[in-house]
Amino acid sequence: MKKVKNDSEYLNNLRHSAAHLLAKSVKELWPGTHNAIGPSIENGFYQDFDFGDVKISDSDLPKIEEKMREILKSWNHFEFNEVSIEEAKKLFKDNPYKLELIEEFAKDGKRIQTNNPGNFLDLCKMGHVEKPKEELKNFKLLSIAGAYWRGNEKNKMLTRIYGTAFPSQQELDDYLKLLEESKKRDHRKLGVELDLYSISPLVGPGLILWHPKLSRVRNVVEQFWKDIHYQEGYQLVFTPHISSMDMFVISRHLSKYIDFMFPIMMHEFIEGESAPDYKGDEVLKPMNCPGHVQIYKAHPRSYRELPIRIGELGTVYRYERAGVLHGMTRVRGFTQDDSHIFCRPDQVKDEVRKVLRLTKKIYELFGFQDYHVYLSTRPEKYLGDLAIWEFAQNSLKEVLIEEKIPFDIDEGSGAFYGPKIDSKVKDSLGREWQLGTIQFDFNQPDKKETTKEEIEEFWNLKAFKHLFKSKDQAAKYLNRLGRGFDVTFVNSKGEPERVVMIHRVIFGALERFFGILIEHYGGAFPSWLAPVQAEIIPISDRHVEFAKKVKEELEKNHFRVEIDGRTETMQAKIRDAQNQKVPYMLIMGDKEQDQESVAVRTREKGNIGMMKSKEFIQKLREEVDRKSLQLMEK
Question: Which end of the chain is more exposed for a tag (fewer CB within 10 A), N or C?
Answer without folding.
Answer: C
